[in-house]
Amino acid sequence: MADCSKKKVDKTAIFLVIGMLFLLLFVAVLLNMLKDIYNQQQELIDLQEQLMSSSGQTEVVAEPEASQPVALGNPVVEKEQIVAETELYTCVARREARCYSEPDTASALIKKYSSADKVEVISLEGNFYKVKADDYTLGYVEKRYLSQGGALVNVPNAVDLRAYLPNAEYEMLFASPYNITGHAMYPAVPILEESTAEMLMEAYEIFDRDGYIIKIYDAYRPKSAQIELWEIVRNSAYIANPNTGGSWHQRGRAVDMSLVNKETGEELEMPTPMHTFDPKAGRYKSSLWSAEAKANSDYMTEVMTSVGFKTITTEWWHFENTKSGNMLPNDIDLGSAEYR
Ligand SMILES: [Zn+2]
């Protein structure tokens, strides 16, 4: 009997000890959780203090409830930071462009943009654009690989040529009173279809190496302007009939141009003044041109055709991209187009 009751006492003691151990373990776990919550609260308070001291704001940011995980550095917080950072705008990749983790080409490669890709830009930092590489990641792309703003963002495949050729000269005659109508027919915005702008960049680089820069007199020309010109000129040798298809200018695939000597800043001698709607402007009348004008026109033509442009017989200044591919709408309202 004695043995039996002793065993019972021993068992009770063992249960008590085990029970105490579980209780201690539970208290320890509880304390640890409370400590974590306290630490997270402290981190949040520190972060708020940092933000307030860096921005000079005195406004107190509402604290999240203690039960919510603060999880500093998780993707949700980073996403909010991207959106809050600043307004985004769109640039166009001028050629294949690498996107790095830091404003340094030796840092990690995040992604590659293809030529003509739209890139969401946050800000310009030295020689790098800070870009939104995806929903959660920021990256850096060298400035020279993206258009410098100026991309026409609300018309697909249209680019502002000034973003591609920032050092070219522009004198948009049909956007000034100095044309046959005597008034500006559309805003002075040199627009081209993207692949045509790329071709012109190739030509620009050749001219640049030879000591010349391109001077643009007309690029995209809305159909409404073509109709107005047609009503006055009524000669399809110079103004393509808008009622029977119009010209490549309406498709964003033609330029009227000349060349400027980089050293002197002077425009080269060409067969006639720009937009002289006269047979002397025609390539078939080159016997009437001066030797100098013919040499300059021949050189310009050789470079432009080497990158894929076609000429027309009636105008020395006109070059067009007749390859298959994207075309712009015939009548973009340039006044309502949005530029960044
Ligand atoms: Zn033309």
Question: Explain this structure to me?
Answer:
The protein is α+β, with helices and mostly antiparallel strands. The protein folds into three domains: 1-55; 75-145, SH3 Domains (SH3 type barrels, Roll), CATH 2.30.30.40; 158-320, Muramoyl-pentapeptide Carboxypeptidase, domain 2 (2-Layer Sandwich), CATH 3.30.1380. The chain is built from six helices and 13 strands. The strands form three sheets. A six-stranded antiparallel β-sheet has the order 1-4-5-6-2-3, with no helix packed on it. A hairpin with a 5-residue loop joins strand 5 (128-132) and strand 6. Helix 4 crosses helix 6. It is elongated and about 130 Å long. The model is unreliable at 51-77 (pLDDT under 50). The structure holds zinc ion (ZN). Zinc ion is lined by residues 249, 254, 256, 318.
Mean pLDDT, as a whole number? 82
Strand content: 15-25%
Biggest sheet record:
6 strands, antiparallel
Question: Pairing-aware structural class of the strands and helices?
Answer: alpha+beta
Q: Tally the helices: what do you get?
A: 6
**CATH topology title of the largest domain:** Muramoyl-pentapeptide Carboxypeptidase, domain 2
Bound molecules: zinc ion
Q: Tell me the CATH architecture of the largest domain.
A: 2-Layer Sandwich
Radius of gyration equals 34 Å
Helix content: 25-40%
CATH level 1 name of the largest domain: Alpha Beta
Q: In angstroms, what separates the terminal alpha carbons?
A: 98 Å
Using DSSP, what is the number of strands? Answer: 13
The order of strands across the largest sheet is 1-4-5-6-2-3
What's the domain count? 3
Global shape: elongated
Oligomer class: single chain
Model regions low in confidence, pLDDT < 50 over at least 5 residues: 51-77
